[in-house]
Structures are given as structure tokens and as C-alpha cells.
Fold:
Amino acid sequence: MMWSWIPSNWSEILSLTRANAFLGIVSPLIGLAISLPLGVVAARWRWFYPPTLVVVNVIYAIPSLALFIVLIPAFGLTDTPVVIGLTVFSLCVILPNVVAGLRGVPASVKQAATAMGYGPLRRLLTVELPLATPVIIAGLRVGVVSSISLASVGQIIGVSSLGYLFIDGLQRSFPTEIYVGLFCVIVLALICDLILVGIRRALTPWASGRNRAVRPRPRWVLSAQPAAPGAGARP
Structure:
């Protein structure tokens, strides 16, 4: 391990890390934007989910490098083939979580919202999606971490990423570059995962383990619970 190489090439390491972060973060976010409407449809009409999942799984089975190469004739040697490929791969992780999160909302909660005058769209946006957020973000976390790792493969087709350190270190038999690349990928994945955990806790305080003694929940959950016997009765 040649420690002096790191400060001498610090600017290049940062540049490659930023490029890898862009590919690894933007792609699953696009995947989330696609998975949300697909998940809503699949949660409403159950027949839609199995064929959609089959298609996504078949695409996921394609090796990442092969998919990137197939997309090159249409989009050239740009970031686009990698972004599209990583987006498709993230669907296989995020879409099932969106469906599971929406289907996991108790029927009593949805009935309570409907009884209060909420239409389907308003109930979806203000009741179902907030309650499904922990499950959705759990899938997004896996999608982001896996995309950050797979983004390095894009260097093989000339897309700038931390994969450059792996390839160059291997070609020059210089393991320092490989170790630095591995370290940057791991740290980048951990930082993104911690950020998503913080976002999940901010959006779903009732699901946080910090307030287990008194755990606030959405009013829909509270309103859907039956009243205790004798509650509200006058003495």
C-alpha cells in the first residue's frame, strides 16, 4: 500500500467518486419514480403485478455489462446506457417494496380515511403512501447501494466511475488504486444509506425506534381503532 499516492491523486479520486455517486444515486431515484405509479396500479389490480414482475426479473437476469453494451448503439458512449441499465436493475428491488408497502396498509385505516371524506387520490397521497414509506425506502436503500456498486462496471465501456481505479490498478499491478476504489465505494454506499435512514426517520417519526415509549402514529391509525367499552359514556 503506497499511502503517498492518495494525496498526489486526490483530485482524480474525488472526481471519480462524484461520477460514481451520480450514476449510483440518480438511477435508483428514476427507478423509484417509475416504481411508484407501477406499484399503485399493481396494488389496486393484483393481476397486473405478476407479469410486470416477471418482465422486470427477466431484465434483471441480464448481465449488467451486456445490457450496457446493447444500449451503446442507441445512446453512444455516454452516461445514458449506464443510467438506463441501473434504473432497470433498481426496479427489481424497489417495485416489490412499493407494492408490499401499499398492500400492507390496513383496510381499517383506508376505510377510516374514506369515511372522513377522502377520495381515492387524496387517500393515496396523504394516508397510504406515508404509511408505506418505511417499506418503500427500505427498497430504495438496497437499490442505491447496489447501483453504487454496479456503476463501477460502466468504466469498462468508457463511462467515468470508480471502476477506473480497479481497471488501472489491475493493468499496472498497483493494488493501492484497487484498495482506494474499494474504500470509496464502501464509504459512498454507507453515506447514502445513512442519509436515506435519516430521511425515513424524518418522514415517518411514528416508525422510529427513538420514541418507543410513546410512539406517535398517523391519526388514521388511531381513528381506525375501536373505542374501548364504555368510552364516552356519562357517569
Observations:
- The chain has one domain: 5-205.
- The CA atoms of residues 175 and 217 lie 51 Å apart.
